[in-house]
Design brief:
Layout lengths: L43 E3 L5 H14 L6 E8 L6 E4 L5 E8 L5 E10 L5 E6 L5 E5 L10 E7 L2 E8 L9 E10 L41 E8 L2 E9 L10 E4 L9 H4 L3 E4 L17 E4 L1 E7 L7 E6 L10 E2 L2 E2 L8 E5 L7 E5 L4 E3 L11 E4 L19 E4 L5 E8 L10 E5 H5 L14 H4 L8 E2 L2 E2 L11 E4 L2 E3 L2 E7 L7 E6 L2 E2 L2 E2 L7 E3 L3 E10 L4 E13 L9 E3 L3 E3 L2 E3 L1 E3 L7 E6 L2 E2 L2 E2 L7 E3 L3 E10 L4 E13 L2
Parallel strand pairs: 1-4, 30-37, 39-47
Antiparallel strand pairs: 2-10, 3-4, 4-9, 5-8, 5-10, 6-7, 6-9, 11-12, 11-14, 12-13, 13-17, 14-15, 16-17, 18-28, 19-27, 20-21, 20-24, 22-23, 23-26, 24-25, 25-26, 29-31, 31-35, 32-34, 32-36, 33-35, 36-37, 38-41, 40-45, 42-44, 42-46, 43-45, 46-47
Length: 651
């Protein structure tokens, strides 16, 4: 898998040397003790530092076994306002309870609660000793059914809790039980950017910020649905990415889609502490000098449905514990369950817990099986990322579970399981579980109906195979016909595939293709419409929901030319990350009707070929190798070089 980046609470925690910072959903404000003359002498609980030698041995074994990269441990405690802390009173009668928690050499600390119930009017703050990082105020609005809750990482080896009980109030309902303190011992320094003299961010340097232009220009809606997840799994935690996902009822049910390997088997009490961070991103293309502060947070979720990584397509559908506030300005992404690979698109993700990034592909997604035979056969898409204007987006630990979108209508077609792409191996492929397989894995002989998205994302059983995303507020949309075609310019004899983009829940479709064969269709997404005569042609779609109808005509939408398409070399390998002695097959994906092919396989045997689809290329020496294809149509040539495309390792 793409290793989930494990720390003990989310990376988007703020630290600044000159001003207070706030992040988790709360009321904000300044703790009253900051403006009073209360004594600094308060109760301190020292949490014993974990056995670092044992942890290092465990981490070394994790690395060997390829499991999650952990950087923190949860240490059991039993702390509440009755057995610890110091009470003080302000002149106006306000009562304040404070507790300092210290653990030697910790890079950061976090708190995990088995009970979290704040009485009306009361507030809770948490801050560092220098009072430069504050989270809160937490109020009754943060109370969670079931009680489990978590608050963010506080930089350093000590933190202070401050509970505020207003004057003349009796604390009859407030109850806070801390069952664990998170001890971060590595991998979190990049979270506290004020400590570093130059630069910040945990991801590798080739990554592209989501608001770069042109990479992010057409994805400003979709990015608003994508969020960082901090996963609690037993006594450790880690980063993944996922997205809010729309359903055919268009009712803004807060479904959230990610990967099963991000925590599909954790306890319900752990899920109640998961944190979801929306809008954690740079405002433009440049990585900012200080960490973004205008993100939004949700805490808690429950399991809805899951599909195993082993023998399945690796998806996890969650239900957030609360409806997303409309002020969060999120987007519920749409989906496409087509079994045909998209020709282009993007992935949007949070590599290494960093701000939101975007990776781009411009060649067709191909069918594959995750990790040879670990996943279900043909249940994943393989993608190769391309260099763009502002970098070469790839994926990293923390990107797991993130959505990949098609370029034709911006819909989710898969969720990231893992792969080999890194900034040092940009041509290596990544693998995404297919939405088409997630949709109804029972069709694929999986024994349990739990392994499916269909009942939840199509609750009315409309049979839709695509659904557009939606903004808030949700509700029944007006019936509106819309569509796209791919491509819209073809040579005579070429074909066009059409995709329904209508909103409002249509149940029937009537297409008319001037100049096309066939000339009409009642399919939702008709494919293979052939155009034989040069010219420009209209396309009309009329949709109906059984009561109303709406037509859409795009005049001159299809252009048919006399000539062929531009010569453009492209190819894909059957595998790109192999061991010594393995043979690989290559498939030509070139456009423009080439008539000859010249291949060069650095490190391969044979080292060259003139076959269109050469097979059995064997790599006998460990290393990273380029592959080159030159195609010709007898008049023009075109070359494609994939640098570092084949990675050969020792067995």
């Amino acid at each position: 898998m793409k290793i989930s980046f494990r720390i003990l609470l989310f990376a988007a925690i703020l630290f600044a040397t000159t001003s207070l910072t706030y992040s988790q959903v709360s009321e904000g404000g300044i703790p009253p003790s900051f403006k009073s003359n209360l004594s600094k002498d308060i109760d301190q609980i020292t949490v014993l530092k974990p056995n670092m030698k044992a942890i290092q041995e465990e981490d070394a074994l994790d690395t060997k076994n390829g499991t999650m990269y952990r950087v923190s441990r949860l240490i059991p405690v039993n702390l509440n306002m009755e057995n610890s802390g110091t009470w003080s009173e302000l002149p106006d009668g306000t009562r304040i309870w404070r507790l300092k928690i210290y653990s030697e050499d910790a890079r950061a600390l976090s708190l995990h609660y088995s009970t979290f119930a704040i009485s009306p009017g009361s507030k809770l703050y948490i801050y560092n000793e220098s009072q430069t990082q504050v989270v809160g105020a937490f109020t009754e609005n943060n109370n969670i059914d079931g009680g489990y809750f978590a608050t963010e990482l506080i930089q350093g080896d000590a933190l202070v809790l401050e509970f505020v009980l207003p004057a003349h109030r009796v604390m009859v309902t407030s109850e806070i039980e801390i069952y664990a303190v998170g001890y971060a011992y590595r991998g979190v320094d990049h979270m506290f950017k004020g400590l570093k003299q130059t630069g910040w961010g945990g991801s590798d340097p080739c990554q592209v910020n989501v608001n770069c232009s042109p990479e992010g220009d057409n994805w400003q809606d979709q990015k608003r649905g994508v969020a960082e997840i901090f996963v609690i799994d037993g006594w450790s935690g880690g980063f993944c990415t996922g997205t809010l996902i729309n359903n055919t009822s268009q009712d803004c049910t807060p479904y959230f889609l990610t990967a099963d390997h991000c925590g599909g088997t954790v306890a319900a009490s752990d899920m109640e502490q998961w944190e979801f961070y929306f809008h954690y991103e740079a405002q433009d293309c440049a990585t900012p000098a200080t960490e973004p502060t205008d993100y939004e947070t949700m805490v808690g979720c429950s399991l809805v449905s899951r599909g195993n990584q082993d023998g399945g397509s690796d998806f996890l559908l969650l239900l957030l514990s609360e409806d997303v506030p409309q002020t969060y300005d999120v987007y519920f992404n749409g989906w496409d369950i087509s079994p045909t690979g998209s020709m282009s698109g993007v992935g949007i993700h949070h590599p290494a817990g960093d701000i939101k990034k975007i990776s781009t592909y411009d060649s067709q997604l191909t069918t594959t099986t995750w990790n040879y035979n670990q996943g279900a056969p043909d249940a994943h898409w393989a993608v190769t990322w391309v260099e763009t204007t502002n970098g070469h987006g790839v994926t990293e630990g923390g990107s797991s579970g993130s959505p990949i979108f098609n370029g034709s209508n911006g819909l989710v077609v898969g969720t990231l399981t893992g792969g080999g792409s890194y900034c040092t191996a940009t041509s290596a492929q990544d693998m995404y579980g297919k939405m088409s397989y997630h949709w109804d894995e029972t069709v694929q002989n999986v024994p349990s109906g739990d392994y499916t998205l269909k009942p939840f994302l199509d609750p009315a059983n409309t049979g839709q195979t695509t659904l557009l995303g939606t903004n808030m507020p949700c509700g029944t949309a007006t019936l509106t016909a819309d569509f796209s075609g791919t491509p819209t310019t073809v040579a005579a004899g070429g074909t066009v595939d059409f995709t329904d983009l209508s909103t409002g829940g249509p149940t029937s479709w009537s297409w008319t293709f001037d100049g096309g064969t066939p000339g009409t269709s009642t399919d939702q997404n008709p494919a293979g419409i052939q155009y034989d005569t040069p010219g420009t042609y209209d396309v009309t779609l009329e949709v109906s929901d059984g009561t109303d109808t709406d037509p859409e005509t795009k005049v001159g939408y299809i252009t048919v030319t006399n000539g062929g398409t531009t010569l453009d070399a492209d190819f894909v390998a059957s595998a790109t990350n192999i061991t010594i002695g393995t043979s690989i097959d290559f498939s030509d994906l070139s456009a423009g009707s080439p008539t000859s092919w010249t291949w060069t396989f650095d490190g391969g045997t044979p080292g060259t070929s003139t076959n269109q689809n050469p097979t059995g290329i064997t790599y006998n020496t460990a290393g990273v190798y380029d592959v080159t294809l030159v195609v010709s149509d007898g008049t023009d040539d075109n070359e494609e070089i994939k640098t570092g495309y084949i990675i050969v390792s020792d067995p």
